[in-house]
């Protein structure tokens, strides 16, 4: 490989010269190759690994030097002698003569350097290598990574770090390589090599710990082992990257979404660290964007562009607040250094003016931003103001273009709609129009249903004039307080959010302001503003369509706050149906989950229908991630976080709660519905107020407060039922004395016993206590805990899935439970490997967590071929892939080109533990299917036939289709390849020849009972099929040395080999059949091999072996001879056509095999799958740079 010329000071240090001429020197690194260089070689090898020398991956190099100079230049290096020799020979042939012409050494040097750089530039251009891709140093690391761990090009290295790996009590200094899918370690110390490869998807725990001896260490745990790394130069950076990569792997296990690199990153500056790869920059940018979005509740696709320190002038207290400004594609945000002082979100769609103000000593580098609602924000102390203004201007221009485009679309839609003005001015109203046509398109029952034009609460608010007056007065005061706040701090999305805002939220949001403020604090207002008409389109598309989600929604509609009058009539029910169904169609991965109906019904009470939809989007996709998928993973993760927090904050209660298993019971119902299902409605909405403002930490704080308030009663509980009763009575007693709503009966009040009611607990007091006692819980700490629990939960789900699969299938197969678990792991890993290393089919179509356990993972043909070669006992010889194709098509019952684990095991069970009849039946079936054409009618016909057959308890062997002549030859060919590596190979060939001869005679006799077939178009087509022969001596076959009764084949020089018919039997049937891999023209049940059948003795008794292609099988007088090799395409001067009347049945095939003891013993012999599983866990597929198929173990040379 040519490299940009680099100066070398000491040419001979640690290198040995192998070739030299006046201008170039070829050298090899000491300690590399045979001999190792003794002690010096060991020291050099160790030094190369510790110092990350490029010589470890490229032990050969070529230096350039002029005769009178002491300076050397590296111009090429190579990983092998062959590679470097090619470069050396090119230099001798193309440059050496030219250099002798030059008189000036400087001219020679300039010419050589220019020539090498030109070659590199041409290579980069032809291979489309971008300039801003990884640096030369990192490319060396990538090459080293792939060479050491045999990784394919699809496996992307992110970064590598120097560290020590602890094997027992002995540290091994080396390098930790972190790629997208693997954690790898390599060490070479004085001749001892250590390698470790772990898939991120196998990691169950990842922790950063500290001890007295090892202040900084990282522990990586899998299901079967634990690994410790220490002595990091930057442990925080390393651990954050490891966390991020493990998270990507967990996300892949959860929803099968692979990693896609972001190619839109800006180019690196020249002063940037050289070691940082493009992929590492991408991951860093992702991590920063995730923190940015979580901090300001922004949409999921928002990308952070950059951030800078600055000050913000706050008019409410007339101060310059120190903080950071964040700029992204659609937003400018600010947060103070002290978290609670002030934060600000400015959508660029609201910005009207961005201008640079005059600098002064008091206000250096100021920047003024004005918005549509007449607010002006003044930032100062900006380090690079001009660049910042340019970036904001660019984003503003893009935003203006988007708004203009959306208006054009909205205008075109409104022009074709009678209600056009309503659609363009207020998109959310169009779905709630009272127009008859609108009503009908939202109605599942085609009957007219009134639709809600406002929040449902405003329609069903009942107030008694007398008894609620004090409460109404307090509600009025709350409204006034919020209005005063808006006047001072601004209103809408651009308002200043301060400690005062938090105080008002904790005091309770007024009833008629809830919808507006929930939208604002959750960030849903941004998504709704940037997606006009989106909800209406979803409703139109989803209404009237039925699937599993809509069935579940219909079932739960009348269980959603049934005690509230808003959901005791069709208007509320219809609105709830539309919102839930629209979201199920927006996000089919979630669809619908129980508890979503309760939360959505509350949202509809306080928000308009479209607003409730976007609030639900914010809840499911950002604020409560993965809560509402089919396995409620997010809720289980937060349950684990809650257990950790309980252990820290209420340690005296933790052991008792764990013993009673109460935490796991209460947390799901509390978290999934945000306490709406366990508290009185008017109290629970206060919790929702705080949740939309502060996020999940409020739920944790409140849950801890409930436990803390009942600590003494819980400690005296004897069982979980008693504990649940105590907590239920307590939560049912939580009241909201400020509520203007009439009391609504709550479920808990109906279930509690007849004891004295629990003393009332004020919800505002409970919230205050939760902030006082547990307000120190930080959002970033929660995210750290979530990562730890996510590893545990997802791996536990994977283990549960495996156990359920094994438990379901163990009664259907003779494999043991341990063997099935190992096979399932191999099956799943093969699927996962194909997801990130490429496959012929879409991984999303092969993994659906919503399917039954047995069908969640499915593999396609290419993956099956690998597993077939490793596990199936019939995999042998050059035709393994062809046999795998036949087996795959037989196992693929529904013809979707994918097989699930049950189908996979059904085939493997037959071949490993089936009796003689089952195995022969399996062999017979796979040869009836066409080889090439999966879409033919016959293929589907056979599948339908066999599907019915598998459902029957007793299979009738007489119903199996007959085997025609072409398929019979295929079967013979398969048998010969199956036996090619068997210890009793010759005896099996002998038996096969006898059986083949017998079956040929049976087929010929069977023709006597068949009426002559009329010549068809297919016959005419078949006449054009010619038998392929070899076109060169290199393609000639080698006949297997065998002695088959009177048929013999003697090995000798290829030109002299002859196949003679010396059989004493002289029957009316004398045939010679040759088979090639050429595809037949027959579209029905024809095999993909042509067959020559002559019905007489007129064919020459002697056929030269050079006339037969290497992939052909010759059968003469029942004596078969097999040869394997390359495909041929030439013709013999003999006619080649299929005998349509020739056929045999399965019973004839079975009876013939039973006559030969060698074949009977072969097929009756059971196969031990454990040895094949062990081999599959360690073997590397020859010719493919694929890693092991199972958990990777460390390989250490002691």
TrEMBL record:
Residue stretches making up the EF-hand domain: 879-914
A single GO BP: system process
Annotated keywords: GTPase activation, Repeat
Domain Rab-GAP TBC: 508-695
Database matches in Gene3D superfamilies: EF-hand, Pleckstrin-homology domain (PH domain)/Phosphotyrosine-binding domain (PTB), putative rabgap domain of human tbc1 domain family member 14 like domains, Ypt/Rab-GAP domain of gyp1p, domain 1, Ypt/Rab-GAP domain of gyp1p, domain 3
Cross-referenced InterPro entries: EF-hand-dom_pair, EF_hand_dom, GRAM, PH-like_dom_sf, Rab-GAP-TBC_dom, Rab-GAP_TBC_sf, TCB1D9/TCB1D9B_PH-GRAM1, TCB1D9/TCB1D9B_PH-GRAM2
Positions of the UniProt region annotated as Disordered: 412-440
UniProt-listed Pfam families: GRAM (PF02893), RabGAP-TBC (PF00566)
Biased composition (Polar residues): 423-433
GO MF terms held by the record: calcium ion binding; GTPase activator activity
Function in brief: May act as a GTPase-activating protein for Rab family protein(s).
Name of this chain's protein: TBC1 domain family member 9
């Amino acid at each position: 490989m040519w490299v940009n010329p680099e100066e070398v000071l000491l040419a001979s240090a640690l290198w040995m010269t192998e070739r030299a001429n006046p201008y170039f020197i070829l050298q090899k690194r000491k300690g590399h190759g045979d001999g190792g260089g003794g002690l010096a070689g060991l020291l050099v090898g160790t030094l190369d690994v510790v110092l990350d020398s490029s010589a470890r991956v490229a032990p050969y190099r070529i230096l350039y030097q002029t005769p009178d100079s002491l300076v050397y230049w590296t111009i090429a290096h190579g990983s092998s002698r062959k590679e470097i020799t090619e470069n050396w020979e090119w230099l001798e042939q193309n440059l050496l003569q030219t250099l002798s012409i030059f008189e000036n050494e400087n001219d020679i040097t300039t010419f050589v350097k220019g020539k090498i750089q030109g070659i590199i530039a041409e290579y980069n251009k032809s291979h489309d290598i971008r300039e801003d891709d990884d640096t030369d140093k990192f490319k060396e690391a990538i090459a080293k990574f792939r060479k050491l761990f045999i990784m394919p090009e699809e496996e992307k290295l992110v970064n590598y770090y120097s560290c020590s790996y602890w094997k027992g009590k002995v540290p091994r200094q080396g390098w930790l390589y972190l790629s997208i899918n693997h954690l790898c370690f390599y060490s070479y110390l004085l001749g001892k090599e250590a390698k470790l490869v772990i898939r991120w998807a196998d990691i169950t725990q990842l922790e950063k710990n500290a001890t007295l001896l090892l202040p900084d260490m990282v522990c990586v745990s899998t299901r079967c082992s634990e690994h410790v790394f220490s002595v990091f130069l930057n442990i925080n950076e390393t651990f954050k990257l490891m966390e991020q990569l493990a998270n990507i792997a967990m996300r892949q296990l959860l929803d099968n979404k692979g990693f896609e690199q972001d190619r839109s990153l800006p180019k690196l500056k020249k002063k940037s660290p050289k070691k940082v790869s493009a992929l590492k920059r991408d991951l860093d940018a992702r991590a920063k964007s995730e923190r940015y979005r979580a901090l300001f509740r922004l949409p999921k696709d928002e990308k952070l562009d950059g951030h800078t320190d600055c000050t913000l002038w706050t008019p409410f207290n007339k101060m310059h607040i120190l903080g950071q400004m964040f700029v992204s594609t659609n937003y400018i945000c600010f947060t103070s250094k002290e978290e609670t002082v002030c934060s600000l979100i400015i959508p660029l769609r609201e910005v009207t003016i961005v201008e640079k103000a005059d600098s002064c000593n008091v206000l250096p580098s100021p920047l003024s931003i004005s918005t549509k609602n007449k607010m002006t924000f003044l930032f100062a102390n900006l380090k690079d103001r001009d660049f910042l203004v340019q970036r904001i201007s660019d984003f503003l221009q893009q935003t203006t273009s988007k708004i203009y485009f959306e208006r054009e679309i909205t205008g075109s839609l409104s022009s074709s709609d009678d209600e056009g003005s309503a659609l363009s001015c207020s998109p959310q109203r169009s779905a709630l129009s009272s127009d008859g046509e609108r009503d009908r398109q939202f109605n599942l029952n085609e009957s007219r249903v009134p639709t809600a034009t406002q929040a449902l609460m405003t329609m069903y608010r009942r107030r008694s004039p007398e008894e609620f007056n004090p409460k109404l007065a307090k509600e009025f005061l709350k409204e006034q307080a919020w209005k005063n706040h808006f006047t001072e701090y601004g209103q809408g999305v651009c308002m200043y959010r301060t400690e005062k805002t938090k105080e008002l939220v904790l005091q309770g949001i007024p009833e008629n302001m809830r919808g507006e403020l929930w939208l604002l604090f959750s960030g849903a207002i941004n998504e709704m503003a940037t997606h006009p008409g989106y909800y209406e389109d979803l409703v139109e598309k989803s209404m009237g369509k039925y699937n599993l989600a809509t069935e579940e929604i219909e079932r739960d509609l009348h269980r959603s706050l049934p005690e509230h009058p808003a959901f005791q009539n069709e208007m509320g029910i219809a609105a709830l149906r539309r919102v839930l169904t629209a979201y199920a169609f927006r996000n089919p991965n979630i669809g619908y989950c129980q508890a979503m109906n309760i939360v959505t019904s509350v949202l509809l009470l306080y928000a308009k229908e479209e607003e409730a939809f976007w609030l639900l989007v914010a809840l499911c996709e950002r604020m409560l991630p993965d809560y509402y998928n089919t396995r409620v993973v997010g809720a289980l993760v937060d349950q684990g976080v809650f257990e950790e927090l309980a252990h820290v904050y209420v340690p005296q209660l933790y052991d008792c709660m764990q013993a009673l298993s109460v935490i796991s019971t209460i947390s799901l119902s509390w978290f999934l519905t945000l306490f709406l299902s366990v508290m009185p409605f008017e109290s629970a909405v206060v919790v929702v107020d705080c949740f939309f403002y502060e996020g999940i930490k409020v739920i944790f704080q409140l849950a801890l407060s409930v436990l803390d308030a009942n600590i003494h009663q819980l400690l005296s509980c004897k069982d979980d039922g008693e504990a649940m009763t105590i907590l239920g009575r307590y939560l049912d007693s939580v009241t909201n004395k400020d509520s203007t709503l009439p009391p609504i009966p709550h479920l808990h009040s109906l279930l509690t016993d007849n004891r004295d009611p629990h003393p009332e607990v004020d919800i505002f007091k409970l919230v205050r206590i939760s902030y006082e006692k547990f307000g120190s819980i930080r959002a970033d700490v929660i995210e750290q805990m979530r990562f730890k629990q996510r590893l545990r939960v997802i791996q536990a789900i994977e283990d549960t899935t495996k156990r359920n699969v094994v438990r379901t299938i163990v009664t259907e197969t003779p494999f043991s439970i341990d063997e099935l678990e190992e096979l399932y792991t191999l099956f799943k890993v093969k699927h996962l490997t194909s997801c990130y290393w490429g496959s012929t089919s879409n991984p999303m179509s092969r993994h659906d967590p919503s399917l039954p356990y047995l069908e969640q993972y499915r593999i396609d043909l290419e993956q099956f071929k690998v597993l077939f070669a490793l596990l199936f006992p019939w995999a042998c010889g050059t035709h393994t892939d062809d046999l795998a194709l036949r087996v795959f098509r037989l196992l693929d019952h529904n013809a979707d080109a994918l097989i699930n684990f049950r189908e996979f095991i059904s085939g493997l069970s037959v071949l490993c533990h089936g009796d003689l009849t089952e195995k022969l039946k399996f062999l017979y079936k796979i040869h009836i299917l066409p080889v090439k054409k999966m879409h033919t009618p016959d293929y589907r016909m056979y599948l339908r036939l066999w599907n019915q057959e598998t459902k029957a308890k007793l299979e009738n062997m007489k119903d199996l289709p007959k085997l025609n002549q072409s398929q019979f030859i295929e079967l013979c060919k398969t048998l010969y390849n199956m036996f090619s590596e068997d210890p009793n190979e010759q005896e099996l060939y002998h038996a096969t020849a006898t059986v083949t001869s017998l079956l040929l005679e049976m087929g010929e006799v069977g023709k006597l009972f068949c009426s002559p077939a009329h010549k068809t178009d297919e016959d005419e087509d078949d006449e054009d099929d010619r038998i392929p022969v070899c076109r060169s001596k290199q393609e000639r076959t080698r006949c297997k040395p065998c002695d088959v009764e009177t048929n013999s084949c003697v090995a000798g020089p290829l030109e002299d080999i002859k196949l003679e018919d010396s059989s004493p039997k002289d029957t009316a049937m004398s045939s010679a059949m040759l088979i090639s891999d050429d595809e037949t023209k027959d579209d029905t049940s024809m095999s993909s091999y042509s067959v020559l059948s002559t019905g007489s003795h007129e064919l020459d008794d002697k056929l030269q072996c050079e006339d037969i292609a290497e992939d052909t099988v010759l059968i003469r007088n029942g004596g078969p001879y097999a040869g394997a090799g390359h495909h041929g395409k030439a013709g013999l001067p003999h006619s080649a056509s299929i005998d349509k009347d020739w056929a045999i049945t399965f019973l004839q095939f079975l009876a013939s095999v039973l006559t030969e003891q060698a074949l009977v013993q072969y097929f009756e012999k059971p196969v031990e799958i454990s040895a094949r599983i062990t081999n599959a866990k360690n073997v590397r597929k020859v010719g493919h740079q694929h890693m092991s198929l199972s958990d990777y173990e460390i390989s250490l040379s002691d």
